[in-house]
Amino acid sequence: MKKIVFIMLVALFGMAANAQEKKNKNAKHSIEVNGNCDQCKKRIEKAALSVAGVKSAVWDTESHRLSLIVNEEKTSLEKVEAAIAKVGHDAGSAKATPADYENLHSCCKYDRNP
Q1: Which of 55, 47, 26, 38 is nearest to 92 (CA)?
Q2: Average of pLDDT values for 11-21?
Q3: Whole-prediction pTM
Q4: Does 11 score more than 70 pLDDT?
Q5: CA dihedral 57, 62, 65, 66 (to 10 degrees)
Q6: Is the Cα dihedral 30, 35, 41, 45 positive or negative?
């Protein structure tokens, strides 16, 4: 009887350990971030890198794509998007508030889709 209970407990813990999703320490992501110029590039990259767990952030002015390398054990893509939105740029599913957008320099104001 003790052996059966022990085997069941081992099996239960084994299944629980396998059910946990393994987080990637070097996950690559690419998101769309609105902006116009080199000033925007600096602001967007600085905001992304300010989030703990972001290892690399490079925004392309032409394609409006932010390429990220993120430690998913420390942060999530949603936290990075929120940090970028806070400095005035729409990023992925996170939209900048009207007040944050208005704080941008005039050359950095992009066309916002309603």
Answers
A1: 47
A2: 58
A3: 0.79
A4: no
A5: 10
A6: negative
Arithmetic mean of pLDDT, 23-28 = 90
User: How does pLDDT run across 51-100, given as a tens digit for each residue?
Assistant: 999 999 999 999 999 999 999 999 999 999 999 999 999 999 999 999 99
**DSSP annotation string for 67-81:** EEEE-TTT--HHHHH
Distance CA 27, CA 48 (A): 14
Q: Where are the beta strands (DSSP E) in 16-113?
A: 27-32, 54-60, 65-70
User: Could you give the C-alpha distances from 66 to 39, 50, 81, 99, in angstroms and in order?
Assistant: 15, 15, 10, 23
Count CA within 13 A, CB hemisphere, residue 87: 22
**Length of the chain as a residue count:** 114
Distance CA 68, CA 49 (A): 9
